[in-house]
Design goal:
It contains 16 helices and 9 strands. By secondary structure, it is of the alpha/beta class. The chain has a 9-stranded mixed β-sheet, with helices on both faces. Strand 4, helix 8 and strand 5 form a beta-alpha-beta unit. Bound molecules: calcium ion.
Length: 362
Amino acid sequence: MEQNIILDTDVGFDDVFALCLLLWKMSSSGGGGDDDDRKMMNLRAVSTVKGLQLDTNHAARIVERILNSCSDLIVGDDDHKFSSLNIDPVSSIKIFSGSQERILPEHGHCFSEGEWFTKEYQYKTDNMADLLEALPLLNSNKEYEKLNDMLEWMKSFPDQYFTLLCTGPLTNIAKLLEMDRELILRKVGKLVIMGGSLFNELEQDVLLNGSEWNFYCDGKAAEIVLEAFGTKVELMSIYVANLRVLNQEQIKELASHVHSDRAVQQDELEPIRRMLKKLLTISFDSYAYDPVAATYLFNPSFFEMRNVKVKVYSEKPLEGLIKEVEYLKTDLERNSGKEVEITAACGFNRDAFFEMLKSLIA
Ligand SMILES: [Ca+2]
């Protein structure tokens, strides 16, 4: 089945890795997914949300530079649908600059609250496109279309047309729902979300109150989006999309490929694979989190999914938490939050994921 994807992203290093994976899957060398239906993958738009990047317009500029830098593979391939349709992929993938404010600004949070969000970290994130040696923009002050333009744009497509892949806080999607709930629910057939700390008994990768950053930053947006979409939501929580997605041995092996001194071969790599390798050189953890969620779009067989009744919390001190209704522990958990049924990943084939990464980098 054709998938027409909108990537809603806060443009961290792992988001860009996920973006490159999607581009790679759309390209001729991307190989098949489960159904060998790579040609049926279509990235239609990228929208940016405040998260790891604090400025959504700057984030949009980074996205455009990445698309420009990865484009020659797609353009150069006669076999590819963009070429056969005679469309320039850079101008055919829309870029929207999304929300700069949380849905309830007074209850929202920001990644910059994290102790790990140091000056050096922010410098690296701000200057990501330069560090990745992405092509410069002709107009470095370019302003991008906004969420209301995105709504207008979506109107011209058939119902149930879009698959939304959300790899940042859910602010944009909640705002789109507030602007035109009926339209968004009609146009979006599926919503794959990287976020939340569900089934996470080990409580790793969690912060402050036990939540996960994307949900913590905008708990109200998470509540609005999950309630609106229900079982159309396919949640990749940090139970599957986490730092431990590779084991120590696999990390060592991947690192040896990333850092191997193969300058000549590097030049011969296609632009997208070269970009992936560069990402790992600058921020090795880029393979974790968001790329796992992106992989679900083309290799759903790597995942075990189930319907689950959850509660989503948007108010202090539980903001950003998502919990299975069956295992609520305290009165506060039972008496607050919104109950909703969603679909969530409860298992993931990490070895298959590693083999896929290796085939790209090695
Ligand atoms: Ca992200």
